[in-house]
Amino acid sequence: MLTRDEVNRRQQQSLDLFNQAGIVITPAEKERIEIADFGLGDFERTGLGVLIYVNTQRVCAKELAMLPRQTCPEHRHPTVGGRPGKEETFRCRWGEVYLYLPGDASQHRHSNPPAGRESTYTVWREVVLKPGDQYTLSPDTLHWFQSGAQGAVVSEFSSTSTDEADVFTDPDIQRFTRIVV
Amino acid sequence: MLTRDEVNRRQQQSLDLFNQAGIVITPAEKERIEIADFGLGDFERTGLGVLIYVNTQRVCAKELAMLPRQTCPEHRHPTVGGRPGKEETFRCRWGEVYLYLPGDASQHRHSNPPAGRESTYTVWREVVLKPGDQYTLSPDTLHWFQSGAQGAVVSEFSSTSTDEADVFTDPDIQRFTRIVV
After folding, report:
1. Testing the interface with A: which of B19, B20, B25, B54 to mutate, by most A Cβ within 10 A?
2. Alpha-carbon gap, residue B35 to B37, rounded angstroms
3. Contact: B89, A21; criterion CB under 8 Å
4. What pTM does this model have?
5. Nearest CB partner across the interface for B59, out of A24, A131, A157
6. φ, ψ (nearest 5 deg) of residue B145
7. What mean pLDDT do residues A51-79 have?
8. Strand pairing of A48-55 and A59-66?
9. Which DSSP string corresponds to B58-88?
């Protein structure tokens, strides 16, 4: 749950991150940045700023802004009504991001889940993405990611985004941020 | 038709444009930049540099690098074998780009087709894209575009790219560049 003032402040932080990455967005787009706190009310640890450039019946492109050491919590994009789940590519533009996937746990991880919520994280194979690096996930693959010490800007190229269909490991998560007016 | 040396030189120019736009690509990606001259052998006027980030069965994302006043010639993405033609969004990242589409001809256009090839251009409704501006084309829509005086960097988000299916208005065009070794 966020106040309108907090949303405005967080949108400005996302804009600052985009600027750091050399990414130009319009004033109207700034107002559209989604400040996602996943219903946990702990945005600085679990959350991210999301700007959807385009989301049609076929294609979606987003820009993600992450504060330092911020986590997008573990989830997957399942098949819904016979339509294959979202396939997505993450491309790091600025900062660093650590992506976690099913498979053998990496021995020396760069990040840990947000304290107190460790039990809602289950995949531990780490892929490090620095600027210019990218990774494509198959549909329905469990994943979570955390930014490095500077934060990160990540482009996401994907099939149609249907965030309401996402399945989170953490039962306390609600995908859509409630804004108090 | 391009020599390997010219391809290398043009790839460096594309990289310089990406750097101008703050876009980081890897050394391996630089080597993969397609120098598209559309078979006309006049790259500085008709051509562009294309870096495909990802092109799966569902989604494609590219970065386009355009020298000053360079033109991507008129074409469309038709339905092939029952599969709807490519739907694409162009987002200007740096410089300026002038996109031409079917509809009422714009009275004051910012660009003209390359001299000598005017007869192979047929659509004249102009959309100006500056950094942060974008436009989504429906499948099978005729379009061409030209960069402004500085050149341009444009991100393209689309459904699967099948360049070999593109239909160009200019019968002399061959989509794939021939490189002489």
Report:
1. B54
2. 6
3. no
4. 0.95
5. A157
6. -150, 155
7. 96
8. antiparallel
9. SEEEEEEEE-TT-EEEEEE---BTTBPPPPE
